[in-house]
Amino acid sequence: MVFETIKKIFGGNNGNTKLKSSAPVPVEDYVEVEVKAYDDENLIKIKSLNLKDHRDVNEISLIVEAGYIALVKTVHLDRDVDEEYAQLLKALKDKLDRLNGNMFRIGDYHIMAIPHNVVVEKVDSDEEDKNLPYGASTTPKNEAKPEEKFEEYDDELFDE
């Protein structure tokens, strides 16, 4: 019953229940359609991860090797780093060195692991400070600096 209904649908409404076969289409009738290729090299890919154990070190290194930038949530880097966590950071740094990648600290709770084709530059607004090492300043110690304000972000973005 169902098969007969399907045959009628494909056969048309004239009651012809024979299924029609299609003849081969000659090559000349095909039209070449231009397909825009997806250029993967111009795409910036960022992954967000947590660093808790050696499996995470392997995952981060694989992600960086694949060309992604990894934003990694860590423990408080000034206060909560113990010997075991320092070994994790050292293992990650060693793996990234073997891949010609690099690792940068971003605040107290995050690091950024980058592949070899990514360059991170610090942009200073003060012309005097351009030739000084990172963190050094020409402001005298007794002169008060204006208070810096940073946008707060939601830590839930980095939770799994």
What would your notes on this structure say?
Helix content is 24%, strand content 12%. It is elongated. Helix 2 (54-65) links the parallel strand 1 (46-50) and strand 2 (69-73). The protein has helices spanning 2-11, 54-65, 83-98, and strands at 46-50, 69-73, 102-106, 110-114. The protein is α+β, with helices and mostly antiparallel strands and 160 residues long. Helix 2 (54-65) runs parallel beside helix 3 (83-98). Strands 1-2-4-3 form a 4-stranded mixed sheet, with helices on one face. The chain has a domain at 45-117: SepF-like protein (Translation Initiation Factor IF3, 2-Layer Sandwich), CATH 3.30.110.150.
Topology:
Layout: H1 2-11, E1 46-50, H2 54-65, E2 69-73, H3 83-98, E3 102-106, E4 110-114
Parallel strand pairs: 1-2
Antiparallel strand pairs: 2-4, 3-4
Helix pairs in contact: 2-3
Please identify, by name, the CATH architecture of the domain at 45-117: 2-Layer Sandwich
Q: Strand order within the widest sheet?
A: 1-2-4-3
Strand residues, percent: 5-15%
How many extended strands? 4
Number of helices: 3
Helix content: 10-25%
* Sequence of secondary-structure elements: HEHEHEE
Highest CATH level, the class of the domain at 45-117: Alpha Beta
- Structural class of the helix and strand makeup? alpha+beta
Largest sheet: 4 strands, mixed
Mean pLDDT: 76
Uncertain segments are 141-160
